[in-house]
Design a protein that fits this description.
The structure holds 2 protein chains of 2 kinds.
Chain A lengths: L1 E5 L3 H9 L6 E6 L4 E3 L6 H11 L9 H4 L4 E4 L11 H10 L3 E4 L3 H5 L1 H10 L4 E2 L10 H8 L4 E7 L2 H13 L3 H11 L7 H4 L2 H14 L9 E3 L7 H9 L2 E10 L2 E10 L10 E8 L3 E8 L3 H18 L1
Parallel strand pairs in A: 1-2, 1-4, 4-5, 5-6, 8-10
Antiparallel strand pairs in A: 2-3, 7-9, 7-11, 9-10, 11-12
Helix pairs in contact in A: 1-13, 4-6, 8-9
Chain B lengths: L8 E9 L5 H11 L3 E7 L10 E9 L1 H13 L3 E4 L7 E9 L6 H11 L2 E9 L8 E9 L4 H14 L3 E3 L4 H4 L2
The chains are: A alpha/beta, B alpha+beta.
Chain lengths: 316, 178
């Protein structure tokens, strides 16, 4: 497949760098101000080097990516809240010209799921978005395999940054501020960690799951969200006296989406440590399924994007 | 109690006492005399029953064959037993509260939790490393009937909300086991 990749952050770059290993060709790579386009395949290493030096990937306008020859648009620009722009318009432009879209950007599927599905239905391309929930973990393809009607609820630890902070606080008896600073030094937390520690990122993932499982209509406004910012270290200490620990858990059921710190058994399945994620499905006929793995990171998330591309290639 | 194959069971007994000196001791003596081991006593001073008495909840353990003797002994000693035995709680829930727990009257918080829902506070652990007027944490272990856990958690959440405390509730047993 020929890929037009929008977004040259960690995920977009990794998709471009790994595409060849998966048997695909990158024909366009764009960041917010420029693009590089070549219908025979761009020189990815040169574009990434240029991005590192000049902070632009190419010399033509970013819109050139849409004019290029491609089969799948990979949308890997930053997730935005509310109208999910510009990711939503990018997906729309690709679909309306009968191209497939693979999203790494959570915005369009969390905030405008029904609009996106409507545009998909009117056109020939498909929309896939495995990378938006749980990074490298095959969450959505597991739901597709089990059958969304057979999954009654999902819960999980879906934000690596919050999980890193909670597991360090519990293990070392350190304060939230101390561990956050450490996480920022290690590059696990952003300079502005709000999106992760306030529960927004986990909530968006849960909203996407609710949309997939229960036929759409959910946005982040339907989610009850609490973060970990005000959690004193003493709460983790007291929990551990009784064999519990605290994790930021997202829960998805037909009656709603909820994200907040919850007590989970210290040695239980949900008490994953560090930046690992875990997703737990309740199924009608097969009991509980657990899948765990790396929920973030450039190559990890790119692997989910490329597996969607491979799915589309198989279906052609 | 090892002479009963070591088998003891936990029971919750709910009593009503007159607000007079010595009443509590008078109520607890028959339990000890008949082989009961006291686990906790929750004395809800400040909340009165409709008859103007003080509700007291006693958790105890004893061999099952001695429990009836303990309840009879309490009644013979003219202690008003509101509930005993078969209705003992079969489930424990742990919750952690954070915030200004001490400033917002922790004993009021506890007594409201027990009077406004079908539960008893079995254990409490409090940590206030920054001092009593700053943010602190408390872990409560609540005994209840398994059918009422949702209701108990709702009550805790509502009281915490009024006092601007945060509740960290467990994923319920059904969700976390298996």
């Amino acid at each position: 497949m020929k890929l037009a990749v929008l977004g040259a952050g960690a995920v977009g770059r990794s998709v471009a760098e790994l595409a060849e290993d998966y048997g695909h060709t990158v024909t366009a790579l764009a960041d917010s101000t420029s693009a590089v386009v070549d219908s025979d395949g761009i020189n990815v290493d040169a574009a990434v080097a240029r991005k590192n030096d000049d902070e632009t990937v190419g010399t033509v306008a970013p819109g050139a990516a849409f004019e290029s020859e491609y089969d799948v648009l990979v949308e890997a620009t930053p997730t935005t809240l509310g109208d999910a722009q510009p990711g939503f318009d990018h997906a729309r432009a690709a679909l309306e010209s009968d191209h497939h879209v693979v999203l790494a950007n959570k915005g369009p599927v969390a905030e405008r799921y029904d609009d996106l599905r409507a545009i998909e239905a009117e056109n020939d391309g498909r929309v896939l978005f495995e990378a938006t929930v749980g990074g490298a973990i095959p969450v959505l393809s597991t739901i597709a395999d089990v059958g969304s009607d057979n999954v009654t609820a999902v819960r999980g630890v879906l934000n690596g940054t919050a999980n890193f902070i909670l597991s360090r606080m519990a293990a070392e008896g350190l304060s939230y501020e101390h561990v956050l600073a450490e996480a920022q030094d290690l590059g696990v937390a952003e300079a502005d960690p709000s999106f992760d520690v306030d529960g927004t990122d986990a909530a968006l993932k849960c909203v996407i799951l609710a949309n997939v499982l229960f036929d759409g209509q959910y946005t982040i406004g339907d989610a009850e969200v609490a973060g970990i910012r005000d959690l004193p270290g003493s709460a983790l200490e007291l929990a551990s006296e009784d064999g519990w620990t605290i994790r930021l858990v997202g829960e998805v059921a037909r009656d709603g989406v909820r994200v907040g710190p919850r007590l989970v058994p210290e040695n239980g399945t949900l008490a994953v440590s560090g930046t690992r994620n875990i997703v737990q499905f309740e199924t009608k006929h097969a009991g509980r399924l657990n899948i765990s793995g790396r929920g973030a990171g450039g190559p990890e998330t790119a692997s989910a994007v490329l597996s969607d591309v491979t799915t589309l290639a198989r279906e052609e | 109690m090892a002479d009963h194959d070591g088998h003891v069971q936990a029971y919750t007994v709910r009593l009503e006492l007159a607000d007079e000196p010595g009443e509590l001791l008078h109520a607890l003596e028959p339990i000890a005399e008949h082989g009961g081991n006291l686990l906790s006593v929750f004395h809800e001073r400040g909340s009165l029953t409709p008859r103007g008495h003080i509700p007291v909840e006693v958790d105890l353990e004893c061999p099952p064959d001695r429990f009836d003797a303990i309840v009879s002994a309490l009644r013979e000693a003219s202690v008003n037993v509101i509930r005993a035995g078969a209705e003992r709680y079969d489930e424990e829930i742990t919750v952690v509260l954070t915030g200004h727990i001490i400033d917002t009257d922790i004993s009021d918080t506890l007594s409201r939790i027990t009077t406004e829902s079908n539960t008893s506070v079995v254990d409490i652990s409090l940590s206030a490393p920054e001092g009593t007027s700053d943010v602190s944490s408390a872990r409560l272990r609540l005994a209840t009937d398994s059918a009422d856990t949702g209701d108990v958690l709702d009550t805790v959440a509502q009281i915490a909300d009024e006092k601007e405390l945060r509740v960290i509730a467990p994923l319920t047993e059904r969700e976390v086991t298996a």
